[in-house]
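INPUT
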Amino acid sequence: MTEENTAKGSTDATANRGDSQDRLVKLSEQIADNTPGVSRVEPSLQRLIAELGASVAEKLGLNDSARSKLKTGGIRVTLSGETAAVSIDIATEKNSPAVNVAQLLQDRIAQAIHREGFECGKIDINILSVES
Amino acid sequence: MEIETDSLLACGHSLDSVWDTLGTDPTPHQKNCTYCQEARKQLTAVDKATRELRESDESDPQMKLGPAFTATIMDIARAEVRRGRKIPLTDGEVGEVNISEQALTALIRSALEEMPEIHARRCRIDVRMNDSAGADSSEPMEPTELVPQQDVGETMHVNLRVATLASVAIHETVEHARQLVSKRLLDVLGTTVDTINITVEDIFDD
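OUTPUT
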């Protein structure tokens, strides 16, 4: 393999990794939104900035790579080899025991990670608020 | 003294000094200096354009933040405040479940709102490793062992300072408050803390 091909292969791998990370973030968000007892995924300033669009990112001096990292602000997905770990901040509803809700969410995200072809690392759930 | 030579005019006066006099009469030096007069002319154009842009932004509805965007910003601000200290609730094979200290203390305070004869004041949550549980003697008030947390290597202790109504029996009131907090945490979280220490630091009249 030539040096150029090696460099291209490395770039492709990095891009695929970024795509997988984005996909797992979106999946985790969808799962949380559809898990009974989860009131919402807590927003983060990082995600807002990432979602405001390219023109705002440019004004803030953020390149695509930096924007991509910001997208994982509220839901953080870490890929290490073939293992995916997730940390997610949520608000829960008062009528559903928060620990049960969080454990159900952990199980559902773990299943999704396996379906995506990754080994499941730690799935940490942070309850930032209990809504009445 | 370091001088920013880039903003100095050929006459030795700075652009900033000319800028500061815009909107007022030229200084005696500026009246006789072509460099300063030219700078005034150009800076006046910049100043005018800046004002026009600012006024245009203020009157342009497109430049105003919509209520939805403002609400989003406020939601984020509130979430950031809640992203403070995390208290572990469970630590299973799959991962941890944590609750923010702010959410936990809010639950404790809301439980005590059902008791008008008691006013919650400071609430502190201590998390200790299991092997040192009970070693802290800073809060010696009648610790009561409750349902332990699940699978967590630490124990959680609530230290609550309250004021009670002068006419009530303090011991019974405090015990009732402790049970109320414990039940609320069990109902809402599905688990509870290891110890609830309550210190009555004041009494109040009707």
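end of record. The CA atoms of residues 50 and 66 of chain A lie 9 Å apart.
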